[in-house]
User: Fold this.
Amino acid sequence: MPSVMYVRDSANNKNVHLQVDGSNQLSVKDATGQASLSSIDGKCALASHQVSHNTKLDSIASNQASLATAAHQVSHNTKLDSIASNQASLATSAHQVSHNTKLDSIASNQGSLATSAHQVSHNTKLDSIAASLAGTLNVSSSATTPARTSGNIASASSKSAGDKSSSVDGNLYRKCAVFGSCSSMSAKVRVHLSHDDTNYYEDHQNQFFANSSNGHIAGNFELNARYFKIEFVDTGTYTLEYAMID
Assistant:
């Protein structure tokens, strides 16, 4: 009696007969299994593609090999020989002679710069410069003693307050000193300046007082104007002189 096998139909929750086809092969309708079998079939079909790929790779290898053929190598060698030949021509004897000629010309011109005639010319110019410098130094160092001059402003002269001395021309000098004495121990004198010996102006910064013990007077000032006078501010008997220096 034939055997009957049952399997569980989980979708319908019942038992069904397990069946085979006419060749006694089990009929499989599982969707997941069918998908896996289709994938395997697809991959098996790649063998034809592999043959195509191999054919193309063989073609590339053949083309690469052709680049290194003897004909190409000869062409490359020919070009390299041409470059070497051109470089070698730069150092030929003819070129060397030309270079030597130019170098000799330069050396000759440099030698001419040190000829006797040129040396004499240079020495003459140096002597001229030295002479000019020597003259300048002599002029600047010749005056070793400053120029001085002096004179009397008043000689035991009785003066009233406000009297002025005669003008003194200080054109060649830069500094002036006034010194002397007065009978009045409280006396003082004041400087007046002028550039034209006509218009005089009182210099309040330069006024000199008598010593209270002996009446001596002394002071100095810059001769920024050409002329000066001395004003006797207090009444008394004055003996006064000046001294100027350049």
